[in-house]
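Worked example 3 (structure in, sequence out).
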């Protein structure tokens, strides 16, 4: 589902967006120095399946990784995703454990 949609980094609103059908999924963030704080995950009711959330978060983490930024997940659902995916734990700042 996510592969066919375009992931947009809306830096004006400080959020990653992906539109599926008529629904807009969002991850809000705050950028400070070389760290990106992922503060809020909004998945609309029409696309609330677990597989979509994992694909969306993976796409966002891949895009952040391409920029060589550290990730600070402050949203519980994003922190849970990082805990369950070892390859994204390396993106946490030095000394931070989740």
């Amino acid at each position: 589902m996510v592969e066919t949609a375009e992931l947009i980094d809306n830096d004006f609103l400080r959020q990653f967006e992906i539109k599926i059908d008529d629904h807009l999924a969002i991850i809000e963030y705050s950028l400070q120095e070389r760290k990106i704080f992922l503060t809020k995950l909004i998945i609309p009711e029409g696309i609330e399946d677990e597989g979509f959330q994992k694909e969306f978060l993976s796409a966002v983490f891949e895009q952040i990784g391409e920029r060589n930024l550290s990730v600070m997940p402050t949203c519980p659902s994003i922190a849970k995703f990082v805990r369950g995916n070892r390859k994204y734990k390396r993106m946490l700042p030095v000394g931070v454990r989740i």
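Notes: The radius of gyration is 13 Å. Helices lie at 50-66, 76-84, 86-89.
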